[in-house]
């Protein structure tokens, strides 16, 4: 007996007015649809997830890859039609199927599990998740009979004045006996103002067939929010941000002005961390204890070690080991691995490079495609010249190397341990162990040049 989940994500999201298909739109820098798949995976009861794709389907498939099965809805003829196109993929009709829209990122696994349990325990043929909203406009309204039983769902633009006053709405989540789903869908039509096959019409069809239909009421109504436009998106984002920040603060993460701090859904932060304003930490980042992050810092898919201080900086796909300081105005990217007790200071960029213990680049340096040992000092303006316009080349720097200011190291190059590079050098040859390398024009002082020139110029004027 297999349990399926069907996520509807083929629509364009016309009301968003964005290029990106709606369900791919990010919330806290993660696509909406990824939240839904993750929540379903966490709800242990699902065996197979089918995602209905259509409009710009490759964008959705590039996000979810092969974590799910895809059904293609070539023309978006409505939510009912979207479910119909999954029929060929459903091989086991004995269990239940949960259907949910791809624009509902706040729904959590706990709610999905409860709805499925209620459906099973009460032996419903279909369970609809409903909620009450202060402003129900845009949502399908729940019409009940005198005894309180669900009669029908009436879409906002089909509803009369009295129906529009109803504040109980369809969340778009349904649990249904798989064996009944497709036969019931065959009976819905598109005789409505949008000429679409509405999934909501399945209620009426199943009622007419004497099926047992029940509702599951969701108390925290904001979790059922459907993201139809960018305003709804901003509200959902701030709810999610508050939820995440609250639980982090309660677990011992200090936040200064938390409304300005955005932490992604999959970020892990240990206790005794301080986060300063205007900071984003996203992706699968991990922040170890004692770290201080921000203000004005972005960290994405990165690991920040214990007691690291990272201020006014960008850190992408990188690792900073413990007791190091980063910033202000540093940029670490593409697999930078900073050793313990480093100092990566003002206007320093590190790309695809590793540094050893106690290495320092305090100001204005570029370190790209380099392997650097311990106790290395990069002077102000030291640069790895790693790119000739076509290819990238490696720089290797041994332990205890001192690089003076304004040094260009033209890669590929190997600077062996204990060397000293004179300021202003442009190196294009390897430097053997323990050497002093000087590669610059020597200074010439032309004495009395200014006085003599002035005398010459004065003579010409006369
Ligand atoms: C839908 C419900 C409404 C409910 C609301 C909850 C219908 C007819 N209406 O309205 O009762 O209150 O959700 O948020 O079901 N989609 C497809 N193919 C299509 C059409 C839509 O895959 O042909 C997908 C969309 O990508 C979206 C989801 O289905 O993820 C819901 O579609 P949307 O247009 O947002 O429906 P609502 O108007 O919000
Ligand atoms: Ca919607």
Biggest β-sheet description = 16 strands, parallel
Instruction: Evaluate the radius of gyration.
Output: 31 Å
Output mean pLDDT. Answer: 96
Which architecture of the largest domain does the CATH hierarchy give at level 2?
Answer: Alpha-Beta Complex
Amino-to-carboxy terminus distance: 109 Å
- Count of DSSP strands: 39
Number of helices: 9
Our count of domains comes out at 2
Sum this structure up briefly.
The chain is of the alpha/beta class and 462 residues long. The protein has 9 helices and 39 strands. It is elongated, with a radius of gyration of 31 Å.
Characteristic key phrases:
binds calcium ion, 2 domains, elongated, UDP N-Acetylglucosamine Acyltransferase, domain 1, alpha/beta, 16-stranded parallel β-sheet, 462 residues, 9 helices, 7-stranded mixed β-sheet, binds uridine-diphosphate-N-acetylglucosamine, Spore Coat Polysaccharide Biosynthesis Protein SpsA, Chain A, single chain
Report on this structure.
It contains nine helices and 39 strands. Helices cover 20% and strands 31% of the residues. The chain folds into two domains: 4-224, Spore Coat Polysaccharide Biosynthesis Protein SpsA, Chain A (Alpha-Beta Complex); 252-437, UDP N-Acetylglucosamine Acyltransferase, domain 1 (3 Solenoid), CATH 2.160.10.10. It is elongated, with a radius of gyration of 31 Å. 44% of the residues are buried. It is α/β, with parallel strands linked by helices. It has a 16-stranded parallel β-sheet that branches. The chain has a seven-stranded mixed β-sheet with strand order 5-4-1-6-10-7-11. A five-stranded parallel β-sheet has the order 14-17-20-23-26, with no helix packed on it. The mean pLDDT is 96. β2 (26-27) and β3 form a beta hairpin. Residues 101, 103, 226, 228 line the site of calcium ion.
